[in-house]
Known about the structure:
Its EC number is 2.6.1.16. By secondary structure, this protein is α/β, with parallel strands linked by helices.
Amino acid sequence: EKGGYPSFMEKEINDQPDAVAQTLLGRSDADGNLTLDEIRVDPSVLKNIDRIIVLACGTSAYAGQVARYAIEHWCRIPTEVELSHEFRYRDPIVDENTLIVSISQSGETMDTLMAVRYAREQGAKTVAICNTNGSTIPRESDAVLYTHAGPEIAVASTKAFLAQITAAYLLGLYLAQLRGNLFQGQIKDILAELAKTPAKIATVLENADQIKELARSMADTRSVLFLGRHVGYPVAMEGALKLKELAYIHAEGFAAGELKHGPIALIEEGQPVIVVVPSPRGRDSLHSKVVSNIQEVRARGAKTIVIAEEGDESVKAYAEHVFYVPETSTLLAPLLTTVPLQIFALELASAKGFDVDQPRNLAKSVTVE
Ligand code: M6R
């Protein structure tokens, strides 16, 4: 059942090309146009929404944070991501023009269920992105967009995360199509680029030996910092969460731009810092800013480990270790850059002899508030 792998987690990491491919399957027609029949919310209602709130916890919330960049960019609808357990307690502003998008692998997370119920009571429309057929959150929502990642057994979420990003992107494209924010040709191009990601994830998996080796050599590490910017920021937080959960190592993810506002004080000789670098072909000088951040921490003694796009030579001078992922657009990069971070946590935890499928103190689905 583990498909020959030593753990479910390793199997699920390796299942990711398929998890993304399955989530895309049947959701565009022969001409490459998007068809999301399962979104059974009246299109006239969706045309009028003026706000999106994504509700989720843990890794699923990081998927929401990634998706927010794409949804706002494509649909021009203000989008927030809120941890489900914080949402209800701040007297949130929610009405019939608010679209609630819940993200949950299990569909049973009590915090998220209660937040969805609350939002519905306030008149909001609710769409669930979920990996578990017939679970409670989809049943209590107006519509559901299933991620077809297949059952996820390991407590630490991996393939569900990539499938959640994929599904949330499809939802964003669907809204953009419905509301006329993107031309049909643009939507087709993005779908075509998405369709190429499973093969690119497979490439990342095939080239994982070096990151495995590095992870195993770092079994005695006490703390690891993760930096990212734009979509790389939630990826950094996800990388840190994986390391905490599996290897019980103190890890924190930061927005790279926040470094100088405090966290840079943590940098001392030998402190490992993993940096998720945006594509040099991307917009808004994101890349050069992150490269400066690598220089800043390096100058203070950090051991710099960099995840960058294939062909990006500029990072080599500042990185002790560089791991390359294939080229893709800025918004799709998380589907690739997350994978080495998952492998890093898995290998480091395995080197320490920990049970990666059942980390201490954690449950696969958190059904209490
Ligand atoms: O089933 P859900 O997606 O609602 O679960 C949410 C979180 O509990 C979950 O992502 C948790 O953070 C995982 N252990 C992450 O690896």
